[in-house]
Amino acid sequence: MTALALSPDASKTTGHTPGAGWLFRLHRPALYVWIAVVAVLAAGLVWLWGPLTDSSAAAWREYNEFCIKRGSCHYDPDAIVRYKDVYGYTTGALTALPFVVAAWAGAALFGRELEHGTAQLAWTQGLSPARWLATKLIVPTILVTAGTGLLVTLHRLMWSAGDGRIDTAKSWYDNLTLHTNGPTTVAFALTGLAGGALGGVLLRRTLPALTFALTGVAATRFLADQLMPHLWPAITRVTSLDDGYQSAGLGVDSGLVTATGAHIADPGCGPTSVSSTCKTVYDGLDATGFYTTYHPESHYWPLQLTTTALVVAVAAALAVAAFVLLERATATPTRGGREASV
């Protein structure tokens, strides 16, 4: 690619160096949208945390008391459905937030400015390419971390308020809840921001940079889901052939245990207490019980913190790559009085 040339007299064309104020002015609409999104989601989570959780929990108590024990139903089904719907909307929106950040970073924050020459103009006004990139990363990083961190905290408080009180509440290891209850969501958002920077510097086009950033977040989240169960030692529980699997948590592996203690695949017959024909199947495999390797709820924070550290490292690597590529692209070594290409 051809080097992004800078005028040798660029720093003399203005008497001051643009700073963070320039970034706020340029992206003021996006800032207002971000504040509005965070405010609306925060209001929804607070509503869930208090009134909706209380009303849904009361409805479930009434259902269990009257419908199950007495056979005469007196409860408020609307309260249960309302909690479930708002929980789904807010959790889904918070899950999507890193992708929104990635799309904005790749398209508006970096890709469009490099495509239209706005970045190159800033470089001719005393703002070096490295400082331009640093400013456009640092300020949004603070805002994204603060906003997403607030929402994750509220989601965790809201979920904890309903845990054990609402019969249909999501488990801690539900995929969406697992991340929206912890800092991995913040790390995904930072990955989207850094991916947008790298995509913009690398591709210098709005749509390709947006696609690059979205793909980066999707790939990072997929890999995080695959790696998370293996980032912390799991525990294994063995149960009898009559009982079947009896453990709840983030699953890692499961199957049959043989008389020699070996772990083999489960043919899927089920507990012998349910189907007597399964005993013949298990006898043929020399099976003596079921095993489940999983993470209990006490492993939640170790899993969250180790995964967050890994994702933040990915975000940092993307940001460093963006700085390196930008430095190479804007270098202007001369050979015989002409600008060299890289």
Task: State the main characteristics.
64% helix, disordered N terminus, four-stranded antiparallel sheet, 2 domains, flat, alpha+beta, two-stranded antiparallel ribbon, 342 residues, 6 strands, single chain
Summed up, what is this model?
64% of the residues lie in helices and 9% in strands.
Structural class: alpha+beta
- What is the percent of helical residues? 55-70%
Alpha carbon gap, first and last residue: 6 Å
Assembly state (oligomeric)? single chain
Note down, in words, how this protein is organized:
With 342 residues, the chain is an alpha+beta fold. The chain folds into two domains: 253 residues; 63 residues, no CATH class. 64% of the residues lie in helices and 9% in strands. It has ten helices and six strands, in the order ααααααααβββαβαββ. A four-stranded antiparallel sheet has the order 1-4-2-3. The chain has a two-stranded antiparallel ribbon with strand order 5-6. Helix 2 runs parallel beside helix 5, helix 5 packs antiparallel against helix 10 and helix 7 runs parallel beside helix 10. The N terminus and C terminus are likely disordered.
Give the helices and strands, then pairings.
Blueprint: H1 20-26, H2 28-70, H3 77-116, H4 118-123, H5 129-162, H6 175-180, H7 184-203, H8 206-227, E1 235-240, E2 250-258, E3 263-264, H9 277-285, E4 287-295, H10 300-330, E5 334-335, E6 338-339
Antiparallel strand pairs: 1-4, 2-3, 2-4, 5-6
Helix pairs in contact: 2-3, 2-5, 3-5, 3-7, 3-8, 5-7, 5-10, 7-8, 7-10
